[in-house]
Write a structure and sequence with these properties.
Elements: H1 5-17, H2 35-42, E1 53-56, H3 62-68, E2 74-78, H4 81-89, E3 97-100, H5 106-116, E4 120-124, H6 132-146, E5 152-157, H7 159-169, H8 180-184, H9 196-203, E6 206-221, E7 227-239
Parallel strand pairs: 1-2, 1-4, 2-3, 4-5
Antiparallel strand pairs: 5-7, 6-7
Helix pairs in contact: 1-4, 5-6, 6-9
Length: 242
């Protein structure tokens, strides 16, 4: 199974229109507020920090480059070729590798696993953007990538984040400038139920090892200057026998 052409086309068009540079899109907050905070919860559960680390849904690679300074082999993977073009241009030194990957296609995950072996996988805000029928295949592919020794860290906006975003979209002056392209391209942030992540992981044969809540920072601000934060939950998972 692979993602629908509508979904793929939506991401391609979004990234083709996205400005260059870190912080140019709605969710591209600086690593000290995102992956840096997440890593503090992820690292204690890693069996082998020397395994390849896959930043799944890497977008323009901001978080990928952060990980590349901390792990020996980092791969930024994304459905969108245009997103990967952004990532490569932002990483002229080639600190990380970049790979186009349909994470809802188990066969593609199996091919990548055959190349890399077991991996630790970081997933920020991917499942909640997926079409409902793609969520379980994505979790199944995640289990393939993790294998027997890897760990996965997922952070996803809560359903309450959808309420926050809907309120921003209804503002009299329109949605914030960086949220508007997300909505215009038909992407659906905050659409997954809160219980979806652990359910899909368990169905994929993974065990939830730890979980918690953190605000998910965006790059947008309210009219009074406050940074927009979305409520989110994080989960660390590993193979059932791990």
């Amino acid at each position: 199974m692979s993602v629908t052409s509508r979904y793929r086309d939506a991401w391609e068009s979004f990234w083709n229109e996205a400005p260059e540079g870190q912080g140019a899109v709605f969710w591209d907050a600086e690593p000290m507020l995102t992956s840096g905070r997440h890593l503090a919860h992820f690292e204690p559960h890693l069996i082998d920090p020397g395994l390849p680390l896959i930043d799944l849904g890497c977008g323009n690679g901001t978080q990928t480059r952060f990980f590349a300074d901390r792990f020996p082999h980092v791969v930024g993977a994304d459905l969108s070729a245009a997103a990967l073009d952004h990532a490569r241009r932002s990483d002229p030194a080639g600190r990380a590798a970049y790979r186009q990957l349909d994470a809802a296609d188990k066969a593609e995950a199996e091919t990548l696993h055959a190349e890399l072996g077991d991996a630790n996988v970081y997933v920020r805000g991917v499942l909640h953007q997926c079409e409902p029928d793609d969520r379980q295949p994505l979790a199944d592919a995640l289990a393939v990538l993790v294998g027997a020794r890897g760990r996965a860290f997922l952070v996803e906006p809560c359903q309450a984040a959808g309420t926050v975003l809907a309120g921003l979209a209804r503002e009299p002056e329109g949605p914030p400038a960086k949220l508007a392209p997300v909505l215009r391209h038909g992407l659906t942030p905050g659409a997954a139920p809160d219980e979806a992540v652990p359910q899909h992981l368990r169905a994929a044969g993974l065990t939830v090892l730890a979980s918690g809540e953190l605000p998910l920072f965006t790059t947008e601000y309210t009219p009074d200057g406050a940074r927009i934060e979305l409520p989110s939950t994080w989960v660390v998972a590993g193979p059932a026998a791990g």
